[in-house]
């Protein structure tokens, strides 16, 4: 049986504490029972004084009031007992880093608990007011509160700690507990007081005395430690607040930089999009130029203006498909190409028409010269031979007259200028079939 101080408490394990004897309201129950003893003794005392007609003493007792049902002593009328063993003994039940080892420790604690309850009942009987097993500290232990109920020589109910031998002599309590817990393989701690008495009786120097720290001093140290911890916690809290504030400021700066980057990204994206549109437009114009140069595209006048078209003959060409794809990437490029090459296309067409008509006049002039030469030759031929050439001559003359009419229709030949048909008259329009 040893005394323990409540230190190294782990609040997370408080829920593992267990009530063994009594109730959670044991302190209130004890106060009620003590107050009842106090009032009963007071009433019995007044009754006895009344029977003996001690009026003066009755008045004095009424002034003094009820007395506590115990005799004043150094340690008070109640006792707290703490039952435990060394932490290593519990941990030795198994490897605590494994689940089976932890379960073995729990079984050892349960066996120790059963022995402790039996020892309390055997040693103090019904005077055990309360017992609780604590697992929220470093070492498993059991707290017990003893309410030593007894009677004095007058039969009055009193609290008498000396009625129990284990309270009367703590050394005897250690011996009794040592014998009882030997069942679990535990041995009694060193009997230093007994050894010191034997050494003193033999005139020898005994073991060095153990200086137990007074409870009040321990409490002062605990309070000082708690205050130091509070100061440290406040300092850490202030540092944490400062860190959080700095983090918030840094986060705000990062968010502002991110917003700027996003805005710049939008601007850059817009520039890149515009540049891409310009590149697609330029490429569409180049593709249109290549298609026109290769004869794969042509420009025709539409209701809305010149339009870039693919001739039917070029639609099946494999060379036209990639050029069409490039032109289709930019609507503006296609329109720009149609506008640019439309004017050039019209100019080229007009120029080609003029050149073709000039070639036609030259060819007609040559034909006319040839016809005149043939007329001169034919007129010198015999009549019979000329008659045989009549069919061929009529077909040739008809073609010449048709060509002459076409030139007149287009304004490239004038009748008054001496240009006449084979009969010497202005040509008539050929019969259309």
Characterise this structure.
This protein has 433 residues and is an alpha+beta fold. It has a domain of 200 residues: 2-Layer Sandwich (BirA Bifunctional Protein, domain 2). It contains twelve helices and eight strands. The strands form three sheets. A four-stranded antiparallel β-sheet has the order 1-3-4-2, covered by helices on one side. A hairpin with a 5-residue loop joins strand 5 and strand 6. Helix 8 crosses helix 9 and helix 8 packs parallel to helix 10. The longest helix has 79 residues. The N terminus is likely disordered.
Q: Please provide the ordered H/E string of secondary-structure elements.
A: EHHEHHEEEEHHHHEEHHHH
Give average pLDDT, whole number: 77
Helix-residue proportion? 55-70%
How would you characterize the largest beta sheet? Answer: 4 strands, antiparallel
Unreliable stretches: 1-7, 416-429
Strand share of the residues? 5-15%
In CATH, the topology of the domain at 11-210 is named BirA Bifunctional Protein, domain 2
Biggest β-sheet: strands ordered side by side in the sheet: 1-3-4-2
Write the CATH architecture name of the domain at 11-210: 2-Layer Sandwich
CATH class of the domain at 11-210: Alpha Beta
Report the count of strand segments.
8
From the N-terminal CA to the C-terminal CA, the straight-line distance is 142 Å
Number of helices: 12
Tell me the radius of gyration: 65 Å
Judged by helices, strands and strand pairing, the structural class is alpha+beta
Shape designation: rod-shaped
């Amino acid at each position: 049986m040893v005394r323990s101080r409540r230190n190294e408490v782990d609040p997370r394990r408080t829920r593992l504490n267990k009530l063994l004897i009594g109730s959670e309201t044991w302190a209130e129950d004890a106060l009620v029972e003590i107050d009842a003893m106090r009032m009963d003794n007071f009433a019995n005392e007044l009754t006895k004084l009344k029977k003996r007609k001690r009026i003066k003493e009755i008045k004095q007792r009424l002034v003094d009031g009820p007395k506590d049902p115990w005799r004043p002593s150094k340690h008070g009328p109640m006792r707290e007992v703490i039952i435990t063993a060394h932490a290593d003994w519990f941990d030795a039940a198994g490897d605590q880093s494994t689940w089976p080892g932890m379960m073995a420790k729990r079984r050892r604690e349960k066996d120790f608990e059963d022995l402790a309850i039996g020892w309390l009942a055997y040693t103090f009987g019904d005077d055990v007011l309360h017992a609780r097993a604590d697992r929220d500290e470093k070492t498993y232990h059991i707290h017990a509160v003893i309410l030593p109920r007894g009677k004095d020589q007058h039969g009055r109910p009193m609290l008498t700690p000396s009625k129990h031998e284990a309270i009367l002599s703590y050394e005897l309590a250690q011996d009794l507990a040592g014998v009882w817990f030997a069942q679990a393989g535990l041995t009694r701690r060193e009997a230093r007081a007994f050894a010191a008495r034997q050494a003193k009786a033999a005139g020898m120097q005994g073991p060095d005395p153990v200086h137990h720290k007074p409870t009040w001093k321990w409490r002062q140290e605990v309070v000082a430690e708690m205050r130091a911890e509070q100061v440290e916690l406040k300092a850490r809290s202030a540092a944490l607040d400062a860190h959080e504030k700095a983090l918030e400021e840094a986060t705000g700066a990062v968010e502002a930089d991110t917003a700027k980057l996003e805005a710049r990204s939008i601007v850059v994206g817009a520039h890149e999009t515009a540049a891409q549109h310009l590149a697609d437009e330029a490429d569409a114009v180049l593709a249109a130029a290549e298609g026109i140069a290769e004869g794969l595209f042509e420009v025709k006048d539409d209701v809305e203006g010149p339009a870039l078209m693919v001739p039917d003959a070029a639609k099946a060409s494999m060379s036209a498909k990639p050029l069409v794809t490039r032109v289709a990437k930019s609507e503006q490029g296609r329109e720009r190409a149609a506008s640019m090459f439309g004017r050039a296309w019209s100019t080229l067409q007009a120029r080609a028409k003029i050149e073709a008509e000039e070639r036609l006049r030259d060819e007609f002039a040559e034909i006319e010269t040839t016809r005149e030469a043939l007329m001169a030759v034919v007129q010198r031929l015999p009549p019979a031979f000329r008659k045989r050439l009549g069919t061929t001559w009529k077909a040739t003359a008809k073609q010449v007259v048709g060509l002459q009419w076409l030139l007149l229709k287009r304004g490239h030949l004038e009748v008054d200028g001496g240009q006449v048909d084979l009969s010497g008259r202005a040509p008539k329009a050929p019969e259309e079939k």
